[in-house]
């Protein structure tokens, strides 16, 4: 079965650079979520999209932005990177059924800021 | 707001031992409850879920029952294997927290042969 695809899997950037993370949801899933997981931490919700519109917003820094495109893939853009942005970034997708179904996660992008 | 509290880890057991990982939650409305598992270097995999009170979720020998009266969703397995070694996250979504998942802090489980 198709899963959530994230790219790249690993990314190394310098401070103050920008990074773009991509997410391709499971076919027919119209909702995408982004999470950030620091070392030894639980995943923290950043932002979500439903039908290309932002549906919820969590602890996403102003330096970050995201969008969902017409083919439902999503991109997380991160600017002015800081050392503290080093983390695993997960994308998850789910169908919008009106009731929580849980979400299916990608393998994650490990971002290292040096 | 919604929150999830898990038993502190790490947890180390011998193979074939009985496993319990405690999870309690605070939520408004009627959330759905989930257990996710994360193997080293991988993403989170949905292990099981329950969407209403007294529902029992089960998968791969793991079980958890949605207890509204005690606001709990404890994970159990009767006989663990070395391959069960991973980090386990309890999570909830729904209620007034909409669709996003709120996770507990995770419990690292190590099974020794």
Could you explain how this protein is built, in words?
The complex is a heterodimer of chains A (114) and B (113). Chain A has 114 residues and is mainly beta. Chain A is built from no helices and eleven strands. Chain A has strands at residues 5-7, 10-13, 19-24, 31-37, 44-50, 53-57, 64-68, 74-78, 87-94, 104-105, 109-113. In chain A, strands 2, 4, 5, 6, 9, 10 and 11 form a seven-stranded mixed β-sheet that branches. In chain A, strands 1-3-8-7 form a four-stranded antiparallel β-sheet, with no helix packed on it. Chain A is globular and about 40 Å long. Chain B is mainly β and 113 residues long. Chain B contains no helices and twelve strands. Chain B has strands at 3-6, 11-14, 19-21, 23-26, 31-38, 44-50, 56-59, 62-65, 75-77, 86-94, 102-103, 107-112. In chain B, strands 2, 5, 6, 10, 11 and 12 form a six-stranded mixed β-sheet that branches. In chain B, β10 (86-94) and β11 (102-103) form a beta hairpin. The N and C termini of chain B lie far apart (41 Å). The model of chain B has no long low-confidence stretch (mean pLDDT 93). The chains are: A mainly beta (114), B mainly beta (113). At the A-B interface, β4, β9 and β10 of A face β5, β6, β10 and β11 of B.
């Amino acid at each position: 079965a198709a899963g959530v695809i994230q790219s790249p899997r690993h990314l190394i950037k310098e401070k103050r650079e920008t990074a773009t993370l991509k997410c391709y949801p499971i076919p027919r899933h119209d909702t995408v979520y982004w999470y950030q997981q620091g070392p030894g931490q639980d995943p923290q919700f950043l932002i979500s999209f439903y039908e290309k519109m932002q549906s919820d917003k969590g602890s996403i820094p102003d330096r970050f932005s995201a969008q969902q495109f017409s083919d439902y893939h999503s991109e997380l853009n991160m600017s002015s990177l800081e050392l503290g942005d080093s983390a695993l970034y997960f994308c998850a997708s789910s169908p919008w059924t009106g009731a929580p179904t849980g979400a299916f996660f990608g393998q994650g992008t490990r971002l290292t800021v040096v | 707001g919604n929150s999830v509290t898990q038993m502190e880890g790490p947890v180390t057991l011998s193979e074939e031992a009985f496993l319990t990982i405690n999870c309690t939650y605070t939520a408004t409305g009627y959330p759905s409850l989930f257990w996710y598992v994360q193997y080293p270097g991988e993403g989170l995999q949905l292990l099981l879920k329950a969407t209403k009170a007294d529902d029992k979720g089960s998968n791969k020998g793991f079980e958890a029952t949605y207890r509204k009266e005690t606001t709990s969703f404890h994970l159990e397995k009767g006989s663990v294997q070395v391959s069960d070694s991973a980090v386990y996250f309890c999570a909830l979504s729904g209620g007034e927290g909409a669709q996003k998942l709120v996770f507990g802090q995770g419990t690292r489980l190590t099974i020794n042969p």
